[in-house]
Structures are given as structure tokens and as C-alpha cells.
Amino acid sequence: MEVCYQLPVLPLDRPVPKHVLSRRGAISFSSSSSLFGAPDPRQLSQRRGAISYDSSDQTALYIRMLGDVRVRSQVGFEPERRSSHPYLCIDFRTLHTRPSSGSTSADSSPERRVHRLLSFQRYLHSSRLLRGIPQQIPLHILDEDYTGQARCMLEKVGTWNFDIFLFDRLTNGNSLITLTLHLLNQYGLVELFQLDMLKLWRFLVMVQEDYHSDNPYHNAVHAADVTQAMYCFMQEPILAKSLTSCDILLGLLAAATHDLDHPGVNQPFLIKTDHYLATLYRNNSVLENHHWKSAVGLLRETGLFSHLPAEDSLNMERELGSLILATDISRQNDYLCRFRRHLDQDNLCVSNASHRHFLLQMALKCADICNPCRPWELSKQWSEKVTDEFFQQGDIEKKHKLEVSPVCDREMNTVGNIQIGFMTYVVEPLFAEWTRFSDTRLSHTMMGHIRLNKASWGALLREQSSVAEGPSSPGTDPEDGAATGGSSSKEIPQGSRES
Ligand SMILES: [Zn+2]
Fold first, then answer.
1. Same domain, residue pair 338 and 445
2. Among 89, 184, 257, 480, which residue is least crowded by beta carbons within 10 Å?
3. Which positions in this protein are listed as binding AMP (predicted)?
């Protein structure tokens, strides 16, 4: 079997700047939670108290609809209910398995113990092998033409209209590995941090494999897309001139791993089905904690940072966690208010390590939800994929007679109305502040795409409602005002950085 693509040649002739290596010890770490330990109860109470869920606050309301569970958690944390809960039988490891996978044998307790040592994705792979089901072989092996085209695309990796779907096809489904490795090399981080190339390779392969390819949205292509966006944001002048190599390494690794082993269902689902992860993390940033701990598991398993002093390695893991935990959408208001306060007071200081870390958190949050800021052709595909995943969850909830999550009911929602709500209450407020922070052509391009994409969804909704209700019916979408003057994809300008 041919190898699909080659390892890039490392720039071995550059010396390791001593100041970078010595700086690592000087970085301050804000995270107080212990690795692999239970969440700090003080942290829980602080965080619960920090967010207002005033029903008049549309943004908070929408975020709560999307996935916040702390309102539910006020009912009480009752681990003893696990054994008697009627929904315990639902195991999300089986959610996206194909019919050909057959039934799982996850009931025996020794086997269950083994499962928990593995990521869910690797459990599925290993269980298929144990049952004698051969691994799926890629249908096509890439030839030089594909590799060459992928390499050409990487030359424009910093452009905002970078087509990650095409890049994923050109790399035979290896976009996350190829892109991350390219960026780490481009920054010279492999030699700077003296990373062992084989360990790095193994780490990236395992990261990519631990994303669930069966998830319509939360898969390795989403992680690659977020990594590419993170790179674009870190290249913005205000950050490019101030970020250290350590910041950049953490930013890229956090983007690549931020949804690691995502099960394709949201936190409320895990809580209402009494999933053990919800118990483990006490209903608190359940998925994000799992993504972080999964990433730390792979770092330790591959020994990627094993050559660093133990303290530095632990600090890297904590910083990684702090970045990944910031992607919890239910904490959006906390971050947005803090960001707004800093901008109002004009007191963000990029020479301050904790401020730079906060800016990395904001950059990763922006990267994670930047789909509506992309050109329509890309944005529309992401919208359909995420809605597909929501609706799959809704179907499972209906099947098991669970309460259907608000945006997961395919009979009550459309791609368009979900997107318009998401853009209005979550994406626009965040990117408006980001534009205040980084007032560049890229930021204005992104804001332009949000407006035009929202208008396009509005126009599609009006079209659908006029077809459904007859030609005399006026548009009834509450966001019509925002969507006035719907556009076609042809009207959407290309971003300023792409050329
Ligand atoms: Zn994500």
C-alpha cells in the first residue's frame, strides 16, 4: 500500500533561539482546576453566579437554547439517579454507527472498563476489529496531482476563502493532520520546541482518528477549519507582533483538539441520559472537559512533550485546557462581557501574558463559530451539516421519548431560522467586538459575509414561506428586518485577504 503523502522536510538549519526556551517557565497559568481531577467546586459556584439568565436577555436565552444546562443542573446533582434512570440504556457511542456495524456488546462490565480507557472513536474501531469487521480502506489513493494541488492550496493557507472541503478531498481525508503539521512547520515550532517528528506525527494521526467521521459536523474537517481560522486570526497584525512561539503552539494545538472525540450530541443530551461524562464533570462544560482530557491523554500517550521539564509540560496541558474550555458556548456572555470591558477601557496589554492568553481564548472562540463569516458557498455547507447533526439528535430524542432539544426538532426548525438566530444572537455580537479589537480588512470582510449570509437565509426563508402559504402571504420571519434585500451568492464579495 502506498503512503498517501510525504512528511514535510524540516528546516533543520535554524538554531533554537534560547530566549524562547527560557521564556516557557515564565508564563503564568490562570487555570486552577487539577488535571484529571474533579472540577473545583469553588470554580463551579463562581461560574454559576457569573452568568445572568434574565429572560429579557435574548442572547443569553438563545445560548441557553443552544446548549446550556446549568439551569437544569440547579435541580440538583444526583449521581444516585444513574442506576435507576430509565434513559440509562442510551449509549451515545452507538449514535452514529452505521447499520453494517452490527450490534455492540457494551453491556459486560469488563469490556465497559476497557472502553473508558479509549476514546469513543477508537473504541468503535477496536470493537469492529474484535468482531472481525475489516477496517475500511480508502476508496482511492491520491496520486501526485492531488498532492501537488493540496500543496498549492497550502501556499494560500492564510486566505479567508480557503476551501477546507476541497483541501480535505485533496488530502484524502487527512486535512487536519496535513494542515496542522504544515502550520507547525511554517512557524518553525517543530525545531523550536525540539518536537520529535515521529511522536508529533503519531499524535496528529491519533487526534484526527479520534474525531468521529460519522458526525455530520463535529468531525476532523471542522477541527481543520477552526485551525485554519485560528491561523488567520493569529496572523492579524495586532496578534502577530505580540504572540510568543509558545502562544502560537498552544493556539494551534487547542484549535486542532478543541472538539476531540465529540459524540455528535450536546451537553443537555448527555445530562438527560445520565451519561457518565456528565456525572464525571458534574454537568459542567462536559464536552469541553472531555475534549481537553482526551487531548491531554494523547499528549501523554505519545510523549510529545516528554522531553520538556515536567512543570512546563503540565503548564502546557493546563493552558490547553483553558483555551478549549473557553469554547463552551454557554459561557459566551462571560467572555464577551470581559472582552467588551477591556475594549471600553482600552486596557488590553499584549505584553501581558495573561492578556495574551485571554486574546487567544477570544480568537479560538471566534474561530470555532466563524462559519457564518465565510463566503456563502462554504458557510451554507457548514450550516447544513450542523443542522443535520442537530436533527439527528432530535430524532434520537423522539425515538427514546426524551424531550426534544429546542434546535433539534426537524419539524419545528429549518436551517435558515436556526442560522439567523445563531448569527443574530451569538456570532454578530462576538465579531462586532473582535472587529473593535482588530479593525482590519479581514474583520470587515467577515462582518460583510455575516450580513450577506443572513440576508441569503432570510431570502430563502421568504421563498419557502411564500411557496408554502401562497403568493399573497407576506414574509413572517421575525428577522426579516435583518434579512432585507436578500442576496445571491454572486453578490457576496470575496474577502480582502484572499487573492
Ligand atoms: Zn468546534
1. no
2. 89
3. 218-222, 259, 368, 419
